[in-house]
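It would be a great kindness if you could assist me with a short task in structural biology. A protein sequence and the structure tokens that stand for its backbone fold form the material at issue. I should value your view on which stretches of the chain appear to form regular backbone elements. The record follows directly beneath this note.
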Amino acid sequence: MKRWSMLLLALLPLWAQALEIGERLAPWTLLDQFDQPYSLDSQARILLVARSMEAAKVVNAALKDRPQGYLQERHGVFVADIQRMPTVIAKLFAVPAMRDYPYRVMLDRDGRVAPRYPAAENQVLWLQLKDGQLVEQQAFTTAEQLATALERALP
């Protein structure tokens, strides 16, 4: 058993590869909080990824007072990793609450997409894209930092 644990730990870095500038992001499709599909395409310029509830709260605080469509105007996409959230909680409370947000949340319910983008649990990962390729990446821990960056990302 100990050997298997050591092998798993040794292989972990291979699964959590860092993205390289210039790398083309693999396409994916997720459902949003309204069960509407969204597919990542070359039109997206900003990809925000929250791997924890703490990080998702940073995004919510940065966008809560913004008008409907603010993130979409900036060609932004927000992915929330909710795979660890109990299904009952997600279905009865969390997702219905998200329907009041003035922005779309792409819900990664199965952990198929968010793990592709390594980030600290308490940070919002910002991937700047151009024609589907990574141009820059940043991480934010406060709503103020994220809101300022979004203001600079002109529509």
